[in-house]
Amino acid sequence: MPARDALRVNGAGTGNGAGTGPAARTLAWRTALLLALVLLAVLLAVSLGSVNVPLPDTLRGVWHGLRGQTLSGSDVIVWQLRFPRVALGLLVGASLGLCGGAYQGVFRNPLADPYLMGVASGAGLGATLAVVAGWPSAAVPLVALAGSLLSVTVSLALARSGRRLPPVRLILSGVVVGSILTAVSTYLLLLTEDRVRQVFSFTLGNLAFGGWRQVGTVLPYALLGGGTLLLLSRALNMLQLGDLTARSLGLPVERLRLIVIVAASLVTAAAVSYAGIIGFVGLVTPHLVRRVWGGDHRVLLPVSALAGGGLLVLSDLLARTLTRPTELPVGVVTTLLGGPFFLYLLRQTRDDA
Fold first, then answer.
1. What's the CA gap between 109 and 96, in Å, rounded?
2. DSSP label of 164
3. How far is 223 from 186, CA to CA, in rounded Å?
4. CATH no. for residue 185?
């Protein structure tokens, strides 16, 4: 197949959109339906909890909060307690979904996820160090963020071969570095067994302490890194043709791979530092989106962000309500939902092959 035709097939043509005609309208309707479902999930998550707030009161509380009016009664529950938690879940889920799609594209591997380069293990080690050292709880996310970025830096350094970053070496270095950091974290926990519960609360994912300050901290990372990934979506389409073909078309493959990994790792590190390690959102969401919306990264990445945010908001709602008055770690819910669903997708893929 000629390179120009291959580019059109893979959605990396020179047009300004992902396509026109009936197919584009179908994608637009599907995206609009997904957006409506996500908004409904947000409203339900803000309304339901240990104290249910009627939907009209929920909308009124959000409106009063947006306008900066004095809050009273249920407005306080809606705007100061639940809505920031839901906003953080939406932001973290969108970050994981977007980065999962970018990782799967840059590695051309459907099993890639945002934690591939050791982000989760680095965050876990950072959080463990902060807890074991007895540092203030406000320092835990910062140390976790530093651990994530350090882990990615070491993985990239080990994977580099001259000026190249071979995908296989990247994957292997990420797995090895992650395993080593996890072992160190486990050893530290064995030394201070009385702090295990606090560390597990982080490693299993938890949005319970989400507030407007956390949202404001994660948002710049998501906008900067996520915006970079969206700008590179067409280049990711070209990369699906293979490194040799992409290079022949003038694509700087190694530079692209490095930028995508750094941007996605930065977004993921910020997300997990304030929400803990939440599994399967970044792995399952792009798979589902790819089956319904197709493999064009110009569509895949933003829709994966939208679907990932909705999935995490619903998961957190289940975590808060299934075992009331206690809460489940949201990472447990996403794993229980995402694990079987991912196995189903693998089974369907095998049957279709």
1. 16
2. B
3. 33
4. 1.10.3470.10
CB crowding 151-189: b at 16 or more within 10 Å, else e: bbbbbbeebbeeeebbeebbbebbeebbeebbeebeebb
- CA torsion, ordered 105, 111, 115, 116, to nearest 10 deg: -80
Q: In this structure, is residue 118 part of a structural domain?
A: yes
Q: Tell me the pLDDT tens digit for each residue of 114-138.
A: 998 999 999 999 988 988 888 887 8
Q: What percent of the chain has pLDDT over 90?
A: 57
C-alpha Rg value of the chain to the nearest Å: 21
pLDDT value for 22 = 74
| 308 in a structural domain | yes
Could you give the number of structural domains in the chain? Answer: 1
Residue 95 domain boundaries: 38-352
d(CA 61, CA 212): 15
Instruction: Tell whether 32 is covered by a domain.
Output: no
Amino acid identity for residue 49 in this structure = G
Cα–Cα–Cα angle for 259, 261, 263, rounded to 5 degrees: 65
